[in-house]
Amino acid sequence: MHPHMLPPSSQKVLHLLRQGGSMTHKDIVKESSLAPRTVRYALKRLKEQGLILEKFNFRDARQIIYECRVADSQRATA
């Protein structure tokens, strides 16, 4: 699925991850001003489409770190 066909909340989260790098769910909620449930839904959609990666947070095992899967060369053109 092309990023422009995603729901607005998913597009916003994807944009944040492209601009801000790796972020936790809590960081995304804070930066996006979206409701936590909306961010969870957006992350689920982005993960299903293979647009983001989930990584283990070694500082706090209760949190997952999310980051954009887009390569650096594609970021420059996005």
Regarding CATH, which class? Answer: Mainly Alpha
Strand content: 15-25%
Estimate nothing, just give the exact number of structural domains: 1
Helix content: 40-55%
> What is the name of the CATH topology?
Arc Repressor Mutant, subunit A
Termini distance?
Answer: 15 Å
Indicate the structural class: alpha+beta
Would you report the number of β strands?
3
Give start-end ranges of low-pLDDT stretches: 72-78
Describe the model.
The chain is of the alpha+beta class and 78 residues long. The protein has a single domain (3-77), classed as Arc Repressor Mutant, subunit A (Orthogonal Bundle). 51% of the residues lie in helices and 15% in strands. The chain contains 4 helices and 3 strands; from the N terminus they run αβααββα. The chain has helices at 8-20, 25-32, 36-48, 72-77; strands at residues 23-24, 52-56, 64-68. Strands 1-3-2 form a 3-stranded antiparallel sheet. α1 packs across α3 (36-48). The longest helix is centred in the first third of the chain and has 13 residues, at 8-20. The two termini are 15 Å apart.
